[in-house]
Write a structure and sequence with these properties.
It contains nine helices and nine strands. By secondary structure, the chain is α/β, with parallel strands linked by helices.
Length: 282
């Protein structure tokens, strides 16, 4: 099937309705573009599950803070289209901001509690922008399954909570983080890193893998492991730590002792670039 690229909501709904009438299962991957192999893995997962795959490419202005990188956020649209084509995507939805936020738009979707900690503490309006645009996109596409990456761990948990609370009838699926061979988690913002900054950025995965390996070796001292993670980051030139924590994977509460369902999560700044990463602990 030839890849379609559309900008209007009515065009998305027409294409999706046609696919559903043909008996196709609909998969959806929301993105802000600047696609990489992490995004491609989501598309490929969707393609394995579904006959008709929609990808949205929309740099959402409402999730950027006043001093963040909205204007310089990479927008290599032709390359994004080529990656979607190669992954077997059926439809790209590439709306203009006025399509998503028309004049008079007044609604916000906010998940309280989960949105105010960790990333939310450092980026206060971020998650409200995310949940509002994701809810709009979910309603526009109405896919059977929507796919998110685990690298944005807090985001996918908040979206799942939103869908549960608002009785969203379709599935939300979280897929594994994709990493470069050196361990750096794939991110559209990695292009901002100089070679030396990239080397500093490897401290995130190094700290996370250290905690995982220690737990696999029998160490259950969560506070000591958290301190070791912080020492690795603090000892790396050019890294400024926002947080490095071991948290409950379901509630995001900071953990003080070993328990089922733990995640180690990190956010740092390397030069002008903010990096996040996490790993599920055994």
């Amino acid at each position: 099937m030839e890849l379609q690229v559309v900008e209007q909501i009515a065009e998305v709904r027409q294409a999706v309705n046609g696919a559903r009438q043909r008996g196709s299962r609909i998969g959806f991957v929301p993105t802000m573009g600047a696609l990489h192999s992490g995004h491609v893995s989501l598309m490929e997962e969707a393609r394995r599950d579904c006959e008709f795959v929609v990808v949205s490419i929309f740099v959402n202005p409402t999730q950027f803070g006043p001093k963040e990188d909205l204007n310089k956020y990479p927008r290599p649209f032709e390359n994004d289209v080529a990656l979607c084509q190669g992954a077997g995507v059926s439809l790209i939805f590439h709306p203009q901001p006025v399509t998503i936020y028309p004049p008079g738009f007044k609604t916000r979707v906010e998940v309280t509690g989960l949105s105010s900690v960790w990333e939310g503490a450092f980026r206060p309006e971020h998650f409200c922008g995310v949940t509002t645009v994701v809810m709009k996109l979910l309603n526009i596409v109405q896919a059977d399954v929507t796919y998110f990456g685990r690298k944005d761990f807090q985001q996918q948990l908040i979206i799942k909570q939103m869908c549960q609370d608002l009785d969203w009838p379709y599935a939300i699926q979280t897929c594994a983080t994709i990493r470069d061979p050196d361990g750096l988690a794939k991110s559209s913002r990695n292009v901002y890193l100089s070679p030396s900054e990239r080397q500093s950025g490897l401290s995130l995965s190094r700290a996370l893998f250290h905690v995982r390996d220690q737990i696999q070796s029998g160490n259950r001292d969560v506070l000591q492991l958290q301190q070791a993670m912080r020492q690795i980051l603090d000892g790396t030139p050019g890294v400024i730590v926002d947080y490095a924590a071991i948290i409950n994977s379901d509630t995001l509460a900071a953990a003080t002792e070993y328990q089922p369902a733990l995640t180690a999560a990190i956010a740092v700044r390397v030069g002008a670039t903010r990096l996040i990463d996490n790993i599920e602990l055994p």
